[in-house]
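We emphasize that the prediction below concerns an isolated chain of 106 residues; any contacts that depend on oligomerization or on bound cofactors are therefore not represented. The input was used exactly as deposited, without trimming of termini.
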Amino acid sequence: MEKYAIIETGGKQYRVEEGGAVLIERLPDRRPGERVEFDRVLLVRDGSEVKVGTPYVEGAAVVAEIAEELKGEKIRVFKHKPKKRYRRRRGHRQIYMKALIQEIRS
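Result of the prediction step, given as a token string:
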């Protein structure tokens, strides 16, 4: 029996399973080792039973523990205006958190 959920956090949607891990965008008020509860659950599947929210499944939640904070790959941002001698190059590294999924409540 496969049990998974689709959650929304940081403006993105993630498919999560119990015992699995997921990289999410940094949560500003959380630190590694803390537990977090995601209540924006869009879909829960438990075996053959599927619950789809409108937009969220009522009473459903996903409990996870923040394992670590890490940085993504560096990207280059380049702005340019032709014929105006305007060029700007910047770099950016997004900060992510690795969340270990402990429980899916439906």
